[in-house]
């Protein structure tokens, strides 16, 4: 339903343009408002997920987007439409990071690509449904109500029902004792990091600590940097439906082309995730990065063929269909094969929602500029004029101008994205290993409780320096995991004596 909601407005750009007498730039600003709010409000999901079960967080976000989607459908002025589109972004900001961390906690390290791919595949079904239904309904009236308005109201009602069901019947993986879907390392890290051994900090202090922890991870910094650029083409793609209709394709033909592209993207996301999972077992430090670079590179030739090589005529529907399908299969790997699985490996389990939230915050806030940028390039450089272009009957001049605007916002970002993945070959392994080490030896015993010492405690420091020290008669630490069972044998006084002696 989240993907269906996102695809509604782009699918009816033509009808909205006519109803409110606006052009590509104004339509781009609508998309900008939603994406910008969705981005800057994403950390709210991380804060909520630190202290509340994620099904409740998902339900809250779903209610926000359901109410705002229904309000979009009954808006009478462009200002109202813009306001409710922004509120819609707030709801999506809460849902998306919480859902991503939910998936990350539900799959082992070597299978997360398939998990995120399956999520993308299911989401694509909703996206296709929302886009196709909205496009087909847009040209008709139902009981005196324009079809595009009714489509928004229908999706709002369905979203509200889904939100209620999620709250009532979903269980947070963190609350499942002995979760068999987590591997041994993940389960032990999760158990230790969630141990209630100190008085709970304030929600703001806890959030600040999580934020600082996430921001220091080099892998996060690099993926966000490439994502800021790599998200631009995907934001520009929302104009595909309008471009098809300017070429002269009717609603059915445009919906079919969008569906083929969406099916290709869904299949490709799952394929890329599964392929990266298998390759990562053989090349754990580089396979996911290589898959992402291949996928980003393929966006360059396919964008060129789609927007410049194929003649912009309704006689070439089949050529557009084949190109869009294979383009979708090859350019949709990055998130499922690399970004999302790698994020889950470089932070502790309790910080996963936060890292996905800040990824959305940084990437989405900059990528949201792509939609109005396409409109500005189309109108200012290539001469698109909303007042003279006849959208209803198609326009060769308008289609040409829009295609060149799209090309500008796709070719260059895809190329830069390929280059920006390269530093991950140097930093990903180190960040992943740091997270695994940090989870086990950051506690000592005080009475009957396990007390955290910090992300890198003194035990870590001594062990990684190669210092061999006897913590009890049967425990020796030399770059080895310290489990909770062994830690119960260590006294606080004994640890203090060891620390003062060795340092």
From TrEMBL:
<keyword id="KW-0472">Membrane</keyword>
<dbReference type="InterPro" id="IPR020846">
    <property type="entry name" value="MFS_dom"/>
</dbReference>
<feature type="transmembrane region" description="Helical">
    <location>
        <begin position="222"/>
        <end position="244"/>
    </location>
</feature>
<feature type="transmembrane region" description="Helical">
    <location>
        <begin position="406"/>
        <end position="428"/>
    </location>
</feature>
<feature type="transmembrane region" description="Helical">
    <location>
        <begin position="82"/>
        <end position="104"/>
    </location>
</feature>
<keyword id="KW-0812">Transmembrane</keyword>
<comment type="similarity">
    <text>Belongs to the major facilitator superfamily. Spinster (TC 2.A.1.49) family.</text>
</comment>
<dbReference type="GO" id="GO:0022857">
    <property type="term" value="F:transmembrane transporter activity"/>
</dbReference>
<feature type="transmembrane region" description="Helical">
    <location>
        <begin position="357"/>
        <end position="377"/>
    </location>
</feature>
<dbReference type="InterPro" id="IPR011701">
    <property type="entry name" value="MFS"/>
</dbReference>
<keyword id="KW-1133">Transmembrane helix</keyword>
<feature type="transmembrane region" description="Helical">
    <location>
        <begin position="29"/>
        <end position="50"/>
    </location>
</feature>
<feature type="transmembrane region" description="Helical">
    <location>
        <begin position="289"/>
        <end position="310"/>
    </location>
</feature>
<keyword id="KW-0813">Transport</keyword>
<feature type="domain" description="Major facilitator superfamily (MFS) profile">
    <location>
        <begin position="1"/>
        <end position="432"/>
    </location>
</feature>
<feature type="transmembrane region" description="Helical">
    <location>
        <begin position="256"/>
        <end position="277"/>
    </location>
</feature>
<feature type="transmembrane region" description="Helical">
    <location>
        <begin position="116"/>
        <end position="138"/>
    </location>
</feature>
<dbReference type="Pfam" id="PF07690">
    <property type="entry name" value="MFS_1"/>
</dbReference>
<feature type="transmembrane region" description="Helical">
    <location>
        <begin position="316"/>
        <end position="336"/>
    </location>
</feature>
<protein>
    <recommendedName>
        <fullName>Major facilitator superfamily (MFS) profile domain-containing protein</fullName>
    </recommendedName>
</protein>
<dbReference type="InterPro" id="IPR044770">
    <property type="entry name" value="MFS_spinster-like"/>
</dbReference>
<feature type="transmembrane region" description="Helical">
    <location>
        <begin position="150"/>
        <end position="169"/>
    </location>
</feature>
<dbReference type="GO" id="GO:0016020">
    <property type="term" value="C:membrane"/>
</dbReference>
<dbReference type="InterPro" id="IPR036259">
    <property type="entry name" value="MFS_trans_sf"/>
</dbReference>
<feature type="transmembrane region" description="Helical">
    <location>
        <begin position="57"/>
        <end position="76"/>
    </location>
</feature>
């Amino acid at each position: 339903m989240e993907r269906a909601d996102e695809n509604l407005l782009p699918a009816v750009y033509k009808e909205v343009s006519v109803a409110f007498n606006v052009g590509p730039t104004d339509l781009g600003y609508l998309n900008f408002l939603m994406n910008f709010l969705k981005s800057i409000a994403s950390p709210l999901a991380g804060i909520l997920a630190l202290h509340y079960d994620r099904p409740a967080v998902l339900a809250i976000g779903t209610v926000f987007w359901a109410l705002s989607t229904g309000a979009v459908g009954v808006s009478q002025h462009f200002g109202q439409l813009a306001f409710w589109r922004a509120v819609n972004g707030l709801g999506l900001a809460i849902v998306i990071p919480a859902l991503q961390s939910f998936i990350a906690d539900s799959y082992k390290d070597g299978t997360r690509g398939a998990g995120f791919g399956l999520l993308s595949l299911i989401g694509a079904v909703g996206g296709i449904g929302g886009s196709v239904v909205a496009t087909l309904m847009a040209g008709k009236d139902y009981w005196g109500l324009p079809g595009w308005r009714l489509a928004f109201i229908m999706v709002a009602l369905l979203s509200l029902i889904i939100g209620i069901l999620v709250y009532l019947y979903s269980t947070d993986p963190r609350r499942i004792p002995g979760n068999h879907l987590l591997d041994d390392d993940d389960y032990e890290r999760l158990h230790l990091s969630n141990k209630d051994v100190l008085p709970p900090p304030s929600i703001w202090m806890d959030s600040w600590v999580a934020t600082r922890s996430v921001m220091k991870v080099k892998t996060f910094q690099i993926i966000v940097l490439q994502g800021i650029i790599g998200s631009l083409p995907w934001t520009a793609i929302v104009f595909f439906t309008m471009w098809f209709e300017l070429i002269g394709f009717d609603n059915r033909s445009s919906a079919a082309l969008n569906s083929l592209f969406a099916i290709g993207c869904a299949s490709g996301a799952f394929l890329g995730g599964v392929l990266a999972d298998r390759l990562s077992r053989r090349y754990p430090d580089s396979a996911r990065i290589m898959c992402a670079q291949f996928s980003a590179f393929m966006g360059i030739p396919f964008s060129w063929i789609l927007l410049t090589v194929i003649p912009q005529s309704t006689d070439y529907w089949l050529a557009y269909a084949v190109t869009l399908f294979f383009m979708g299969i090859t350019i949709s790997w990055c998130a499922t094969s690399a970004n999302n699985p790698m994020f889950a490996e470089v932070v502790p389990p309790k910080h996963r929602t936060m890292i996905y939230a800040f990824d959305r915050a940084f990437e989405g806030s900059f990528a949201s500029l792509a939609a109005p940028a396409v409109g500005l390039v189309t109108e200012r450089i290539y001469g698109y004029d909303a007042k003279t272009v006849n959208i209803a009957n198609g326009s060769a001049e308008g289609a040409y101008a829009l295609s060149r605007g799209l090309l500008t916002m796709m070719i260059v970002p895809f190329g830069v994205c390929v280059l920006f993945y390269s530093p991950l070959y140097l930093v990903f392994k180190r960040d992943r290993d740091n997270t695994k080490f940090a989870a086990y030896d950051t506690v000592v015993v005080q009475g009957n409780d396990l007390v955290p010492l910090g992300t890198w405690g003194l035990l870590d420091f001594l062990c990684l320096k190669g210092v061999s020290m006897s913590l009890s008669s049967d425990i020796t630490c030399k770059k080895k995991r310290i489990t909770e069972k062994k830690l119960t044998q260590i006294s606080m006084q004994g640890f203090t004596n060891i620390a003062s002696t060795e340092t």
